[in-house]
Amino acid sequence: MAELTSKERVLKLFRKEAVDTMPFFSGMSMLPIQVIDEMGIRFAQIHTSAEYMAESALKSARMFGFDSTVIPYDMCTIPEALGRGINLYDKSEGILFPTVPTKWQTLAEVEIPSDFMEQGRMPMIDQAYKKLIDESKNGEFAVGAWLLGPFTMAGQVIELDLLLKGAKKYKEQVDEFLRKMTDVVIAAGQHYQSLGVDFINIREMGSGTDILSPRMWKTLIQPNLIKVFNALNSPKVLHICGSTDMIIEMMNECGADALSVDQKNNVVESRKKLGNETLIFGNFDPFGTLVTNQDPAFVETTVKQCIDDGVDAVWPGCDLWPDMPKENVEALVQSVKKYGIKPSPAVGRLG
């Protein structure tokens, strides 16, 4: 039996077809510090050059055996294109992610430029995707894209308190604002799919039940996520971090091909609720497992637990923080291949 290429492995998993072993891939940033060091550049430089961005993603996949690449590395690309600016911390020698310096102060100020996909770093991101897509034609890796969900995107461009406090008092204005954010997410997602990315992850990461009640999630979050997933082609993932046990069934109604959850989710119980036909990705703590932990054996134990609990792909609960010991990243990939040889609930294995 011929070994699958990484791209074949990832795409078959999304179709719930048998694979040779579980791929290790993610719909969130995966940029180890060892790659930045080898390139001889500062972390801040990664975010402003298509060449650096594509090269760093390629090197990450090749150095550690990831089955996918995924870009960009920061959450500010679209807020910047919407006119909110960008703090790149380009003089810093350490790892500081870009931030949004200015937010709209009222809902009345919100104005979405019709050409936002041509503003800021958006054309540069397109060039980076094109380079990765061209490099992936031999199947060496799948190319992943990600976007913030409408609610989380809203929190990047307007104060979240304003949004939450206004949800009842100014319901029509809040609904209209979230519709605008939904249209932005759809436009960007359809654009990246038109470029040829292999899968897309929608990260509605600010909407767990740590922040919103299940009732609020159903009325404020779910309708816009359904609209997003109806507008996008497969494969598509819905990722929500934080507490998701009480909304996992509503998440599954949104139309994604797979659900990604973090370490706060009880995957055993989620599997019982959703059955074996739903793709579940997760659910380890990336910072505690790969950064503060110094024992690769703990990484292996964590991966095994995720698989034993019933995930179909071992995904981190958030971005991989770059400053990870090399031995931990190697243990992560090797452990997924070691324990991922057995079938997962939704995906069989080639005989």
Automatic annotation (TrEMBL):
An example of a Gene Ontology BP annotation on this entry?
A: methylation
Q: Where is the Uroporphyrinogen decarboxylase (URO-D) domain?
A: 5-339
**What does the record give as EC number?**
2.1.1.246
**One Pfam short name:** URO-D
Q: Which UniProt keywords apply?
A: Methyltransferase, Transferase
One GO term in the molecular function aspect is: uroporphyrinogen decarboxylase activity
Is Metal-binding given among the entry's keywords? no
Question: Record keywords: Transferase included?
Answer: yes
- What PANTHER family would the database entry show? METHYLCOBAMIDE:COM METHYLTRANSFERASE MTBA
Any idea what this protein is called?
[methyl-Co(III) methanol-specific corrinoid protein]:coenzyme M methyltransferase
State the species of origin: Desulfosalsimonas propionicica
